[in-house]
Amino acid sequence: MPVTIDAKPYPYALPAGKPCLIVIDMQRDFIEPGGFGDTLGNDVARLTTIVPTVKKLLDGFRRLKLPVVHTRECHKPDLSDCPPGKLNRGKGKFKIGDAGPMGRILIDGEPGNALLPELSPVPGELEMTKPGKGAFYGTELSAYLQDLQITHLIIAGVTTEVCVQTTMREANDRGYECLLVEDATESYFPEFKQTTLDMITAQGGIVGWVANCEKTLAGLERAYGV
């Protein structure tokens, strides 16, 4: 019998092989005051509340020697990988590529595009840039997961309804069994987060499963602990 995580809409069965943790876009531009999220008028304090939980999840995966992937949404300095529709959308104070308080907005290598220091990768973890919302488009993620023979993804990060949900839907279409850690993801809009959780688990888990960090780590410990 496989070990399971107590999840919604029903228990999430862990594989005989290793699951991979995907931490989506825990970068300064989205989470810190003065970043892109802040300049769009969002309450970034909502996102900072999950940082300790994401750290706890990371620590658990590292202790159990399970694979971890970190993503950053960003673009090349010349914006050649940023579609005009994305670049020009919106009427905010700053656009992608503009100079903001933490350097050019969503540009790889700028201070604001870095991951939060307390959530930085350790040796052996993949830090991956992505030009879109989802973690599969225009990235090496598919090849990386295939090389490790990964079939199950545990997902955390921001924002729940945009990059996190897009990644889960991309993964679902590719056959991955996905679980979203509900207290390790957040949105600027609380109603958007809840709606996304409901959408994921509707119709018997049409996109995947949802569980909290405590139950996720307990299941992982039972399956992979020594």
Blueprint of the fold:
Layout: E1 4-5, E2 12-13, E3 20-24, H1 28-31, H2 36-39, H3 45-48, H4 51-63, E4 68-73, H5 84-88, E5 99-100, E6 103-104, E7 126-130, H6 141-147, E8 152-158, H7 160-173, E9 177-186, H8 190-205, E10 209-211, H9 213-224
Parallel strand pairs: 3-4, 3-8, 4-7, 8-9, 9-10
Antiparallel strand pairs: 1-2, 5-6
Helix pairs in contact: 4-9
Report the biggest beta sheet as strand number plus sense, adding barrel if it closes: 6 strands, parallel
Give the SSE order as H and E letters. EEEHHHHEHEEEHEHEHEH
Mean pLDDT: 96
Work out the radius of gyration. Answer: 17 Å
Determine the structural class based on helices, strands and strand pairing: alpha/beta
List how many beta strands DSSP finds: 10
As residue ranges, the low-confidence spans are none
| Number of helices, where a helix is a run of at least 4 consecutive DSSP H or I residues | 9
Choose one word for the global shape: globular
Helical content band: 25-40%
N- and C-termini, Cα separation: 18 Å
Sheet-strand content, in percent, reads 15-25%
Q: Walk across the major sheet and give the strand order.
A: 7-4-3-8-9-10
Any overview of this molecule?
The chain is of the alpha/beta class and 226 residues long. It has nine helices and ten strands. The protein has helices spanning 28-31, 36-39, 45-48, 51-63, 84-88, 141-147, 160-173, 190-205, 213-224; strands at residues 4-5, 12-13, 20-24, 68-73, 99-100, 103-104, 126-130, 152-158, 177-186, 209-211. The strands form three sheets. The chain has a six-stranded parallel sheet with strand order 7-4-3-8-9-10, with helices on both faces. Strand 1 and strand 2 form a beta hairpin. Helix 4 packs parallel to helix 9. The radius of gyration is 17 Å and the shape is globular.
